[in-house]
């Protein structure tokens, strides 16, 4: 009786399934990265080494041409406080994030900070990491 074992171990490794997974991950991250937008306004923020904050309750943007927007609503200086309070209403321990362009006069920044102080809101000045 001539019984031979046919147990040859193949030294080859099939990479086709691995490349499929890599391409799918590449496509996923390319699509996901295009969906991330910080804000519609293109602001040049001051540089800082401070930590970043993940919480976003109300964002006040001041553009280089001194336009003020609360979230996506463009407001005048007279309407600013009312709009901030409207968007903060119902949120416990609301945080106001101030995104002011570095060319904006300091006086406008202080006005927004004063509104937050008078209404006992926490205020964060957004900066670019240096």
Structure description:
The chain has 130 residues and is an alpha/beta fold. It has a domain at 47-129: 2-Layer Sandwich (Nucleotidyltransferase, domain 5). Helices cover 35% and strands 19% of the residues. The chain has helices at residues 16-35, 77-88, 106-118; strands spanning 47-48, 58-62, 68-70, 73-75, 95-100, 122-125, 128-129. The strands form 2 sheets. A 5-stranded mixed sheet has the order 4-3-2-5-6, with helices on one face. The protein has a two-stranded parallel sheet with strand order 1-7. The relative contact order is 0.17.
The fold-level CATH name of the domain at 47-129 is Nucleotidyltransferase, domain 5
CATH architecture of the domain at 47-129: 2-Layer Sandwich
**Quaternary state, please?**
single chain
Shape: elongated
User: Helix- and strand-based class?
Assistant: alpha/beta
Q: What is the count of β-strands?
A: 7
Order of helices and strands: HEEEEHEHEE
> What share of the residues does DSSP label as strand, in percent?
15-25%
Q: Which stretches are low in confidence, meaning pLDDT under 50 for 5 or more residues running?
A: none
Identify the CATH class of the domain at 47-129: Alpha Beta
Termini separation (Å)? Answer: 80 Å
Helix tally equals 3
Biggest β-sheet description: 5 strands, mixed
Helix content bin: 25-40%
Radius of gyration: 27 Å
